[in-house]
């Protein structure tokens, strides 16, 4: 399979399978968190550092892949193999102006490893970035709604959904967790090969916790949360086709909010496909849209 085709499949497994902390702390608990560049820096730093934890786990589990990361040219650059959805950058343009030399460095990092060049970019990135992307042949290929909930200003409500119980993934539950993900994402062609591999790395990624929702005792949905310091990043939510619309995702959201609050988090963050059911579930749970992030891909001759 060509790099381009692998990437077309990989980029659809989204809305990050990890979560890591933000970079700032709020000492005045009455101060409101606004959807501004400071929040964007916090969220994109969290995503980037989540990728760092994941690539480090990959390097331990499968050193032959050559997984590594670099903080370079104003971004976190991640390499987890050419076909991995983790292989991309985060935070580009949020630290200041971006130059052609910056993009040269980042492009070499990926091209030398036979990988596509993808950048997840906030709309609050420095204005110097946009003309550079268009002149160099980048194309927008994916849009993600980034949502957040201020847990200090809006503590989570505690409620139960009849017939549904959410439990943490134990060692003996890992195969069930993988199976739910395979079924839940089965509408995405070619994902099965990637997903099993990703799940193995997830199981040893620092800070990542898996959860399973049971409907009348049967496992039907899964999700993940990563908590460090004061930020919780929700990720990887899916439900098997036959159990959709029964409240499993609402239950997973409620439980992750409870865990985040009890762990002392200030903010919960998640990504969803724009206009999707996942976005609506998040908004019902008190999340609000911070911004829409765009993934830009360089059009390489091999594509």
Structure description:
With 303 residues, the protein is of the alpha+beta class. The protein folds into 2 domains: 3-145 and 292-298, no CATH class; 164-290, Gcn5-related N-acetyltransferase (GNAT) (Aminopeptidase), CATH 3.40.630. Helices cover 32% and strands 27% of the residues. It contains 8 helices and 11 strands. The protein has helices at residues 3-10, 37-61, 100-111, 129-135, 174-184, 191-202, 248-262, 277-284, and strands at residues 68-72, 75-79, 88-90, 118-121, 138-150, 164-168, 208-215, 218-228, 231-239, 267-273, 288-298. An 11-stranded mixed sheet has the order 1-2-3-4-11-5-10-9-8-7-6, sandwiched between helices. The chain is globular, with a radius of gyration of 19 Å.
> Helical amount among residues, as a percent range?
25-40%
Instruction: Give the helix/strand class.
Output: alpha+beta
Evaluate the radius of gyration.
Answer: 19 Å
Strand order across the largest sheet: 1-2-3-4-11-5-10-9-8-7-6
Overall mean pLDDT:
87
Summed up, the helix count is: 8
Overall structural domain count: 2
- Order of helical and strand elements: HHEEEHEHEEHHEEEHEHE
Low-confidence stretches: 1-12, 14-29
What is the tally of beta strands?
11
The best one-word shape is globular
Q: What is the straight-line distance between the termini? A: 12 Å
Largest sheet: 11 strands, mixed
Q: How much strand content do the residues show?
A: 25-35%
Task: Name the features.
303 residues; alpha+beta; Aminopeptidase; 2 domains; eleven-stranded mixed beta sheet; 8 helices; globular; disordered N terminus
């Amino acid at each position: 399979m060509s790099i381009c085709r692998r990437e077309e499949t990989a980029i659809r497994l989204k809305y990050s399978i990890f979560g890591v902390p933000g970079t700032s702390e709020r000492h005045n608990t009455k101060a409101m968190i606004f959807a501004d560049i400071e929040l964007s820096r916090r969220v994109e730093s969290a995503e980037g550092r989540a990728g760092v934890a994941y690539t480090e786990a990959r390097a331990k589990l499968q050193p032959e892949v050559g997984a590594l990361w670099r903080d370079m040219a104003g971004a976190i650059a991640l390499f987890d193999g050419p076909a991995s959805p983790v292989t991309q950058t985060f935070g580009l343009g949020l630290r200041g102006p971006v130059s052609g030399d910056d993009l040269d460095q980042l492009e070499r990092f990926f091209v030398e490893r036979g990988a596509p060049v993808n950048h997840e970019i906030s709309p609050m990135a420095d204005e110097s970035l946009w003309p550079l992307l268009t002149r160099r042949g980048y194309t927008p290929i994916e849009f993600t709604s980034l949502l957040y909930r201020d847990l200090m200003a809006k503590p989570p409500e505690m409620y139960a959904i009849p017939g549904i119980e959410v439990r943490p993934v134990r060692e003996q539950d890992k195969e069930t967790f993988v199976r739910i993900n395979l079924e839940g994402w089965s509408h995405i062609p070619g994902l099965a090969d990637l997903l099993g591999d990703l799940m193995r790395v997830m199981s040893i990624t620092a800070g990542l916790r898996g959860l399973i929702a049971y409907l009348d005792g049967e496992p039907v949905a899964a999700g993940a949360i990563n908590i460090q310091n004061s930020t919780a990043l929700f990720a990887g939510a899916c439900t098997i086709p036959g159990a959709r619309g029964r409240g499993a995702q609402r239950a997973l959201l409620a439980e992750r909010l409870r865990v985040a609050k009890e762990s002392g988090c200030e903010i919960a963050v998640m990504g969803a496909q724009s206009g999707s059911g996942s976005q609506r579930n998040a908004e019902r749970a008190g999340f609000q849209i911070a911004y829409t992030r765009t993934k830009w891909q360089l059009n390489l001759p091999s594509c």
